[in-house]
Amino acid sequence: MYRKLRLCSNNGGFEAIPDPPCPIDLARARDRLAAAEVPVVDARVMLIATLPPEVTISRAGRLLFKTRDAADAEAGFARLRALLDLPPLADGPG
Amino acid sequence: MARGVMLMSGGIDSPVALHYMLRLGHEMTAVHLDNRPFTDDSPYTKILDHLEILRARYAQPIPLYVLPHGPTQVTLMRETDRHVGCVMCRRFMWRSAERIAEREGATFLATGEALGQVASQTLSNMRSATAAVALPIVRPLIGLDKQEIERVAREIGTYEISTRPGVCCQAVPDKPATRSNLVQILAQEDRIDVDRMVDDCVRHAVVR
């Protein structure tokens, strides 16, 4: 389960944090994104995919959507979840 | 007065540092290492707004060089020890700024660094980072605390710009080194082609 999306500390984007932890196999995620023709930068310890919005995917499962629009971030999460088989977002407060 | 190159980040400190250098009458060029995709476009747009204010205040053109730093970050993250990532990153910033200084005929580099604000700003990290370049480095804010810097930023009208929302640098490691030594850093740089990386970065500079 991912906690509800919330603005990051500098209010520049929305982050999603898995609880309990949900590590992501980045090599596998990169291949899946590439197969879906999603542009992706592989920095080994993280991926940066342009859905849009652009999203940073960490090994620990933390996601950062670079948009200040909550609806865009939620749409991005839904697409990424489908592509990578991620757990759902929690309904309650983050 | 001398000609210098100021590293600009979009944060609170660098426009204040630039203000001090301009106030003394130095002729300054700004350099921004564009960290996308590890940030968003907010640092860049903030710097454009900072420079608009300072250009008007000091009637100086203050050219801005924007250099792509994202590809460098990717290589550093893939090939070198994450623990010293901030120091490695800073070394590339300084090298690129020095190349721009050569192009502009500048005789010094400048930065808004103050001691101890972030991981890269310890004495050992500053030493490791700046050992990458030969030009002298000026730090107008080194003895100021954050409150003093913010007060000046408000006075010159850059504070509200700097504090607009933005994505923090995603390349910062979870536990960045606060102490580094040059031998350790040089061993990391043996794994990568430093000259080619700096060449690539500077070759794609855009002047605004």
Task: Pick out its properties.
heterodimer; A: 94 residues; alpha+beta; B: 208 residues; alpha/beta; Rossmann fold; globular
Give the helices and strands, then pairings.
The complex is a heterodimer of chains A (94) and B (208).
Chain A: E1 6-7, E2 14-16, H1 26-35, E3 40-42, E4 46-50, E5 54-58, E6 63-65, H2 70-84
Antiparallel strand pairs in A: 1-2, 2-6, 3-4, 4-5, 5-6
Chain B: E1 3-7, H1 13-23, E2 27-34, H2 42-58, E3 64-68, H3 70-79, H4 85-104, E4 108-110, H5 123-130, E5 137-138, H6 146-156, H7 159-162, H8 182-189, H9 194-203, E6 206-207
Parallel strand pairs in B: 1-2, 1-4, 2-3, 4-5
Antiparallel strand pairs in B: 3-6
Helix pairs in contact in B: 1-2, 1-6, 3-4, 4-5, 4-9
Number of helices of chain B: 9
Q: Low-confidence spans of chain A: pLDDT under 50, at least 5 residues? A: none
CATH domain class name of chain B: Alpha Beta
What is the CATH fold-level name of chain B?
Rossmann fold
By CATH, the architecture of chain B is named 3-Layer(aba) Sandwich
Principal-axis shape of chain A equals globular
> How far is the N terminus from the C terminus of chain A?
11 Å
CATH superfamily of chain B: HUPs
Greatest chain-chain interface? A-B, 19 and 16 residues
Question: How would you describe the shape of chain B?
Answer: globular
Order of helices and strands of chain B: EHEHEHHEHEHHHHE
* Main sheet: strand order of chain A: 1-2-6-5-4-3
Alpha carbon gyration radius of chain B: 16 Å
Looking at how many chains there are and whether they match, the oligomeric state comes to heterodimer
Please tell me the overall pLDDT of chain A.
Answer: 93
* Poorly predicted spans of chain B: none
